[in-house]
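Tokens for chain A. Residues wanted.
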């Protein structure tokens, strides 16, 4: 197709092309310029991929890395939206709540890049354990500070019986006020974690930095996150500030 005819078609369908680009990236942010061109072609609009890229940039779309997150079912999206809407309407401050969670931390080498001289095939090699050392961690925070935290071996299976023991040792003393929360200490110099003992020490040091003031700041940030959930209609949100 001659370039003059192609330019005329783009000019005639300019608004439709922009709308299709917006619609395409709203439904799938990983779409390519060829995907957009194919969608336009089904409507009888032929546009080059280079022109689509220029219009895409003009609309404000920028290339960035993909961030993966957990899948949320539609029913759970609605539940998230309802809960956050109710809490925001009630002005909930969560000042009398304890937030608990568990996670798994493992020692592993995950560097993505390295610098080697030309011809050196060995400096880029990194040892990686077949079964990296890991631990399970459980802990909670509130405006009063932190609960005691539990560190469990990576081979542990956290069933109902074990979870009840964690609550009895770490949560109930905090709830009753018997447990004295960790006092504030200045942030310690970052340490290189090389083995399981170093990992446990690093976790304990980090936990001590979670003062009541820090915990309160985290909890106050929940309001902003709930607002984002409402904006996204229950979908995933960016957890940063």
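Reply:
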């Amino acid at each position: 197709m001659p370039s003059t005819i192609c330019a005329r078609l783009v000019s005639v369908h300019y608004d439709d092309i922009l709308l299709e680009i917006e619609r395409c990236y709203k439904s799938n942010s990983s779409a390519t310029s060829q995907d957009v061109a194919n969608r336009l072609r089904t409507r009888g609009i032929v546009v080059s991929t280079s022109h689509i890229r220029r219009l895409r940039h003009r609309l404000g779309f920028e290339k960035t890395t993909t961030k993966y997150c957990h899948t949320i079912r539609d029913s759970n999206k609605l539940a998230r939206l309802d809960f956050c809407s109710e809490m925001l309407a009630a002005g909930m401050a969560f000042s009398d709540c304890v937030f608990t969670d568990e996670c798994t931390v493992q020692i592993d080498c995950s560097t993505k890049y390295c610098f080697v001289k030309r011809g050196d095939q060995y400096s880029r090699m990194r040892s990686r354990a077949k079964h990296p050392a890991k631990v399970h961690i459980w802990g909670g925070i509130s405006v009063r500070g932190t609960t005691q935290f539990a560190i469990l071996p990576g081979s542990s299976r956290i069933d109902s019986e074990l979870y009840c023991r964690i609550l009895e040792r770490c949560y109930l003393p905090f709830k009753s006020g018997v447990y004295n929360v960790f006092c504030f200490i200045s942030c310690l110099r970052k340490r290189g974690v090389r083995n399981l003992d170093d990992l446990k020490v690093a976790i304990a040091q980090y936990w001590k930095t979670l003062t009541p003031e820090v915990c309160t700041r985290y909890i106050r940030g929940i309001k902003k996150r709930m607002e984002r959930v409402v904006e996204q209609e229950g979908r995933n949100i960016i957890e940063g500030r």
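The chain has two domains: 4-59, 74-109+132-232. The chain has a mean pLDDT of 82.
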